[in-house]
Prior knowledge:
Blueprint: E1 2-15, E2 18-23, E3 26-32, H1 39-51, E4 55-56, E5 63-65, E6 73-78, H2 100-116, E7 121-123, E8 131-145
Parallel strand pairs: 3-6, 6-7
Antiparallel strand pairs: 1-2, 1-3, 1-8, 4-5
Amino acid sequence: MRAVIQRSKNSSVVVDGEIVGEINSGMVVLACFEKGDTEENVKKAIYKLINVRMFDCIETKKMNINIKQAKGEILVISQFTLSWNGEKGHRPGFENSLDPLNAKILYEKFCFGLEQEGVKVAQGIFGAYMIVNITNDGPVTLFLTF
């Protein structure tokens, strides 16, 4: 599993001209499920994202608090294109991506697991063509592999 996470002031996702998910201050997660990923990868990702200290502490002005301490929200977008590592060729290939049926199952477990941690979670629509509007705060962008 791979994820790009961005600290966000506000973000939304649009499908067919309609906003289907939006957050105020928080985190945008572009999540990619790859061949070999299991529920264990999902659990590790949830734990890391809930605990990563990427939000500024008011007193120190340094990144030292997590999403729950920041009272932030999470927008999760399925992003199979992250599976391309770019090592060969110039046309992206996605053979490392998990098949759509199993990827959707893990995506839903991932979103549900984040909600179970007490964080508001908004989502895109798995497999849909989406317009994602991100107001990156910082900018802070992290790339994680689980």
